[in-house]
User: Fold these one by one.
Assistant:
Number 1:
Amino acid sequence: MSRAVLSIGSNLGDRLAHLRAAVTLLGGSARQVSGVYETPPWGDPDQPAYLNAVVIAQDPAATAHDWLERARACETAEGRERDPARRFGPRTLDVDVITVWDADGRPVFRDDPELTLPHPRAHLRAFVLRPWLDLRPDGALPGHGPLAALLAAPGLAADVAAMTSRPDLSLESMG
Ligand SMILES: Nc1ncnc2c1ncn2[C@@H]1O[C@H](COP(=O)(O)OP(=O)(O)OP(=O)(O)O)[C@@H](O)[C@H]1O
Ligand SMILES: Nc1nc2c(c(=O)[nH]1)N=C(CO)CN2
């Protein structure tokens, strides 16, 4: 498995520093990093706004599970604590594995609760789709279709309208 799209988000503490730490920890595998967006909280409204971005990562040696391990390692390094009572609650750093392509460029589909691929809620999340679209205008979420079409769905309109680009907060050259 060699290529992955990772979503990074933070809404506690120094949000930009947490995102930068994720990019730094991913190291040379982080090939492209999107711009940063300020986004309304999804799934649990009573929490601060998030900063979100997307990383396109590549490593010929990495399995799909390796991407999950790397995502978890980033979260742990940034002091992520889980509140079992709040599924979509606030966090210093969230790193989700959105989709993985194998060495032959085929998308990986996996229905395993430990690692579901593509990420089961990615198609509902403007904070994932919009920064990914910036990096891949012709991109598609395997199993769901073109990013641009997913973002145009009526259910995402309010989230798209409420998110703001933050060009003042760059993650570039962090990889
Ligand atoms: N594609 C995936 N990316 C990341 N974690 C996943 C994925 N599929 C399943 N998981 C599992 O989900 C568990 C919970 O992850 P986490 O606490 O980050 O969820 P969350 O960020 O609160 O919600 P969400 O997964 O909707 O973003 C992880 O321990 C992981 O094993
Ligand atoms: N805007 C936004 N909302 C979220 C985010 C996130 O990264 N950005 N992550 C969550 C984790 O499940 C829950 N809600």
Note: The beta strands are 3-10, 30-33, 37-39, 50-58, 94-101, 110-112, 115-117, 140-141, 145-146, 164-165.
Number 2:
Amino acid sequence: MAVRVVLVGCGNMGYAMLAGWLKSGKLAPSETLVIEPNQELRDRAGRLGSVVASSIDDAAGDLSPEIVVIAVKPQVIREVTAGYRKFAGSATFVSVAAGTGIAAFTEILGAGAAVMRCMPNTPAAIGKGMMVVVSNANVKEPAKAFVGDLLSTSGKVATIDDESLMDAVTAVSGSGPAYIFHFIECLTDAAVAAGLPADTARLLAMQTVYGAASLAAESGEDPAVLRRQVTSPNGTTAAALEVLMGQDRLKTLVTEAVGAAKARSVELGK
Ligand SMILES: NC(=O)C1=CN([C@@H]2O[C@H](COP(=O)(O)OP(=O)(O)OC[C@H]3O[C@@H](n4cnc5c(N)ncnc54)[C@H](O)[C@@H]3O)[C@@H](O)[C@H]2O)C=CC1
Ligand SMILES: O=C(O)[C@@H]1CCC=N1
């Protein structure tokens, strides 16, 4: 089968998306070409059935991909993207890099290049990602629909028109899974400090975050209402929430953290 999608960079994020696409069956493995210089990561993609190569120059055959997904680090994105200029006339480019704006791509690929920016997150690997997309005017409807369809196999897709919102998006849903993972680590450590064995502590912390997030998502109820349902007057939860919510402690910390991520995203774009 001809290659429809070239994935450039198959590290944490590239692999998470690739796994989602192939699991859904919307793309056959042989329709995907993965360019990844790291042999271990290339082999991992190869085990999913993708065609793999260490550089685009090593990829065999005449390629005419519909989509080129750029999933390398922002620091190398310009030099890496330049190697794909030959596809700019026909393919739509999709970048998942933090910070780097659409203008950086049209500078490299030409003003007429069709470019989409997508901010995914790693839960995409199990179909529970959050993908936010913005496109330039050169992206044609069929390509937009194809990319949207592919991304939807990895979770929820939201579209924005104002690219300047991408820094905030990155700080919330792009980086956000790390905040929640850290919360699980903290809750696990606190459980051990409270006397529970380590494996029980981990199970309780993880299942509690999973259950609470699922209840919030599936009930559609305001999280504040769900919080009150747990909180008996003068009970145990109220005692804990006094620590977390007193003087807006957690809120202040989370707001500062998101602000720092947003500022770094702006910086990466310079
Ligand atoms: N990790 C995450 O949760 C998220 C990452 N992103 C973005 O995704 C991009 C990739 O991030 P990660 O996957 O975390 O980094 P990573 O370091 O795990 O993956 C990048 C991959 O690019 C490969 N690479 C380097 N030079 C290359 C070249 N010339 N051709 C092809 N591949 C090359 C590296 O070997 C590496 O495997 C970044 O731009 C980041 O901002 C976006 C949202 C979430
Ligand atoms: O940490 C980063 O820069 C990337 C972008 C969002 C998540 N990971």
Note: Residues 98, 170, 174-175 surround A1CAB (ligand 2) (CB under 6 Å).
